[in-house]
Amino acid sequence: xxxxxxxSVDDLPLLPDLVAPQAWSADLVAASxxxxxxxxxxxxxGEGGLxxxxxxxxxxxxxxxxxxxxxxxxxxxxxxxxxxxxxGAAPPSGAAAFDAFLRNQVFTMNAALHVAVRRxxxxxxxxxxxxxxxxxxxxxxxxxxxxxxxVGGVVDLERDVAGPYVTRFWTDQLGVPAGAAxxxxxxxxxxxxxxxxxxxxEDRARVxxxxxxYLELVGRTVAxxxxxxxxxxxxxxxxxLDGIDLPGAPPDLGALVAANFFDGFHTVAVxxxxxxxxxxxxAPAAERVRRAPSLVAAAFTExxxxxxxxxxxxxxALGDVEHAGLRIPAGxxxxxxxxAANRDPEAYDEPGGYRxxxxxxxxxxxxxxxxxxxxxxxxxxxxxxxxxxxTATSVQVRLESPQPGWVPGSAIRRHPAIPxxxxxxxxx
Length: 428
Description:
Order of helices and strands: HHHEEHEHHHHEHHHHHHHHHEEEEHHEE
Largest sheet: 5 strands, mixed
Structural class: alpha+beta
Organism: Pseudonocardia humida
Distance between the termini: 59 Å
Radius of gyration: 21 Å
Number of helices: 19
């Protein structure tokens, strides 16, 4: 596109004219790489909105206060439209629980509610608080690794290691009984279908059913833990929620936790598994980390940059927006392809390479602007604990499949499977 942007969004290129829809849905990372080669950084998405893939323009728009959360009605309407396009049929009814799930997330809220609820959630995920949780994360992971090594054989790195590790960590923090942790993991895996670009009627029905059970399970168990009065995190969250006197606030503690810790249960597990696979697949890098554990932070950052689990989200122009001469009318949906910006050659040297020595740079793995993920510090801590444990001299992890590929047609960047063998190694 060159250095300057056109003044009207109508002058921007159209995604379907540059990339076949099936190629985009199959692998938007590869498709974005092709757009970068053509000098494209922002374009129309073919659905009445904008698609942003470039690092500089994405950061600028993410920081613009006029680019805010997307109304739930828009998100549910677009989800229904995708079912209709994929199947030719109307989506199943009974989406009340799913609507409530979206409505209670800080990501869909706008000021002043977004600021107030985000403050309640983020206050307990600051670096000092996260550092205090690291010891518990290590103990949980030791237990998970003990289980998989005791069973032996091939296990899946996401399903059998990262998933249980992350889910148990957060259910422990929130006072959810151990017996419910496995069911939470199963339910969020089912809810993962919400990210499909072309869901079937069955996909939609399973998302709705899983969401309803998930909200009930988390809400009930969190309420029980709160009634016991011995969970400091829930106490802080409850007091913060009580202080919000704004329309649309989560109706109770369970709703707040279920909606805003979903990514902690689900997306973080994908991030941990992806980053671990990136490192384990690069034998020289894995050996460097094994010999110098101080490189764990760089290994997680680089793996998360290349394989950010939530590849894109949609925001909305709350008012008229202008950036570098481009005028974006109020009400325009703006899809931010975060993983694409992480690979923009204008921002990264050798953007597709895995380099532990890459100069530190704030990527877009966790979004950007005032709506950057409030749990990014906890995600990083959990990822670094995992990489440190999986490259320890007392553990051997062997990848069984060098090229498992990616799940196509989803906004989540994850492997269909990451088969590994994990075993303990006796001290020399």
